[in-house]
């Protein structure tokens, strides 16, 4: 059977095998130089096609996730935060907890790397073929309140229930009003044992009653989040303050304030 080049390219297009189509001659030449059998050549072509599709899927999923920055685990300074177990983070990067619909709480003061870890783990979860959505707590609550006021709360909750992992960053920096706390509870209930959640907070769980402005609602939220959960409490200095100390900015600021007070 003889097939001309244009016909073969057309077939590959119809089958949406675009990686093979776009690199056909080079791939066949590479297979020939390696003296691959027909079966090995077919496996080689499929491998390249799958790699291209995975690459495009990851790029698209990263955009959909709405990460504010690109952060990876390789860029996290574990030595600067000895309270964190690198092996535990590497285990979380396998995304088994996401497959199980568990919750992950990253707790600690500002600047210790909670958001960095949240984004980095979210990116790893995408590489494991799961969907992710990132949002700050304040942005999330604002969308829920707006949807509730417009009669679209059910629609919004359904949308937020879809990603396999929902990352909520910066919980606790600003308190919720009672209505917002109840809306947040509805979201947690919707995702309970169905979709994984990753929450970063500068407040210990014992302080969440203050965050939500209602100890009863806070207890109900924590009851669901902690049922199947991993809790990591980070203790240490702020990265940002550490860098300023190294540059001498904090010392200069302290000296300036001291002079002004005199």
Produce the secondary structure layout.
Blueprint: H1 5-14, H2 18-22, H3 24-33, H4 38-65, H5 86-92, H6 96-99, E1 103-107, H7 114-127, E2 132-136, H8 137-149, H9 153-161, E3 165-171, H10 178-191, E4 196-201, H11 208-212, H12 215-225, E5 229-233, H13 239-247, H14 249-261
Parallel strand pairs: 1-4, 1-5, 2-3, 3-4
Helix pairs in contact: 3-4, 4-7, 8-9, 8-10, 9-10, 10-12
Keywords: ATP-binding, Nucleotide-binding
Organism: Rhizobium azibense
GO molecular function, one term: ATP binding
**Integer-rounded radius of gyration:** 25 Å
Distance between the termini: 94 Å
Order of helices and strands: HHHHHHEHEHHEHEHHEHH
Structural category is alpha/beta
User: Can you tell me the overall shape?
Assistant: elongated
CATH class of the largest domain: Alpha Beta
How much is the average pLDDT? 91
Give unreliable regions as ranges.
none
CATH superfamily label of the largest domain: P-loop containing nucleotide triphosphate hydrolases
CATH topology description of the largest domain: Rossmann fold
Main pleated sheet = 5 strands, parallel
CATH architecture of the largest domain, by name, is 3-Layer(aba) Sandwich
Give the strand tally.
Answer: 5
Question: How is the largest sheet built, in terms of strand order?
Answer: 2-3-4-1-5
**How many domains?**
2
Family: Belongs to the IS21/IS1162 putative ATP-binding protein family.
GO biological process, one term: DNA replication
Keywords: ATP-binding, Nucleotide-binding
Organism: Rhizobium azibense
């Amino acid at each position: 059977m003889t097939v001309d080049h244009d016909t073969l390219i057309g077939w590959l297009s119809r089958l949406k095998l675009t990686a093979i189509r776009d690199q056909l001659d080079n791939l066949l030449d590479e297979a020939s130089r390696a003296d691959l059998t027909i079966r090995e050549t077919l496996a080689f072509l499929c491998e390249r096609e799958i790699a291209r599709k995975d690459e495009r899927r990851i790029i698209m999923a990263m955009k959909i996730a709405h990460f504010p920055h690109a952060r990876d685990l390789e860029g996290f300074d574990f030595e600067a935060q000895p309270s964190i177990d690198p092996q535990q983070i590497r285990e979380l990067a396998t995304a088994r907890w996401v497959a199980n619909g568990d919750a992950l709480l990253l707790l600690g003061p500002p600047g210790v790397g909670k958001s960095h870890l949240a984004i980095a783990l979210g990116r790893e979860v995408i590489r494991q073929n799961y969907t992710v959505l990132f949002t700050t707590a304040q942005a999330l609550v604002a969308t829920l309140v707006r949807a509730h006021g417009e009669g679209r709360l059910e629609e919004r909750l359904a949308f937020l229930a879809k990603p396999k992992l929902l990352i909520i960053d910066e919980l606790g920096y600003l308190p919720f009003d009672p209505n917002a706390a109840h809306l947040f509870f509805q979201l947690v209930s919707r995702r309970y044992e169905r979709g994984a959640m990753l929450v970063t907070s500068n407040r210990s769980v014992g302080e969440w009653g203050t965050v939500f402005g209602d100890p009863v609602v806070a207890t109900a939220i924590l009851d669901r989040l902690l049922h199947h959960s991993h809790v990591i409490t980070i203790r240490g200095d702020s990265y940002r303050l550490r860098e300023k100390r190294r540059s001498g900015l904090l010392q200069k600021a302290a000296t300036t304030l001291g002079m002004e007070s005199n």
